[in-house]
Amino acid sequence: MNEKSSEIDQTVLQRAPEKDAKDVADIVSASILLQIRFTDRLKEADPNVTATQWAMLNLLTNHGPLRPFHIARKLGISRQHTFQATRKLQSYGYIASTSEDNSRAVTLTLTDDGKKLHHAVAKLFDAAAGELNVTLPKANVRPTKVFLLHLTRTLSDADPGDDAERLPSAIE
């Protein structure tokens, strides 16, 4: 995230009205439920793909070929976790790796099957996105995104071993 958007995010967060602990707990609970629902939908497309693997496919779809280091940094997960997820996605035929002449550095790309899976999962979420467009006022979109990213990072800092909460950083 660049400096300017970080300043905007802080401004949005600082303007948040007073809230009680129950409201915040309800938001955290709703976020957990959202992750469960996301995982359920993801399993409809492919029962083997995890949320982290989906985030990797999403990054590769939106940002083109990437090195594993860049994926790890963008998702906020360890290189080891990225390597494990990469091996799984390669075994499913969703990504391929290439390396330049005599280089240990590899670049990951989506295969045609990976593109098809990404499209199938994205299609599952189209209806939900359409509903959000109807029910979420435009003025609330940015503050909602900022708050969810802030919540995600807060939860990630509380439990660095669990990368599932880091998914929203993949949409930045």
Describe the protein's topology.
Layout (H helix, E strand, L loop, with lengths): L2 H12 L6 H25 L5 H13 L4 H8 L3 H13 L3 E5 L6 E5 L1 H24 L2 H21 L14
Helix pairs in contact: 2-6, 4-5
Strand sequence of the main sheet, in spatial order? 1-2
Strand content: 5-15%
Question: What letter string, H or E per element, gives the SSE order?
Answer: HHHHHEEHH
Coarse shape = globular
CATH fold-level topology: Arc Repressor Mutant, subunit A
Q: Calculate the terminal CA-CA distance, rounded to whole Å.
A: 7 Å
The CATH architecture can be given as Orthogonal Bundle
Overall helicity: 55-70%
Q: What is the CATH class name?
A: Mainly Alpha
Low confidence ranges: 158-172
How many domains would you count in the coordinates? 1
The gyration radius over C-alpha positions equals 17 Å
* Main pleated-sheet profile: 2 strands, antiparallel
Assigned CATH superfamily: Winged helix-like DNA-binding domain superfamily/Winged helix DNA-binding domain
Organism: Paracoccus aurantius
Pfam families: MarR
Protein name: MarR family transcriptional regulator
Outline the structure in words.
This is MarR family transcriptional regulator. Pfam families: MarR. Residues 43-141 form the HTH marR-type domain. InterPro entries: HTH_MarR-typ (IPR000835), MarR/SlyA-like (IPR039422), WH-like_DNA-bd_sf (IPR036388), WH_DNA-bd_sf (IPR036390). By secondary structure, the chain is mainly alpha-helical. The chain has one domain: Arc Repressor Mutant, subunit A (Orthogonal Bundle). It is 67% helix and 6% strand. It is built from 7 helices and 2 strands; from the N terminus they run H-H-H-H-H-E-E-H-H. Strands 1-2 form a two-stranded antiparallel sheet. Helix 2 packs antiparallel against helix 6 and helix 4 (68-75) packs across helix 5. The longest helix is centred in the first third of the chain and has 25 residues, at 21-45. The radius of gyration is 17 Å and the shape is globular.
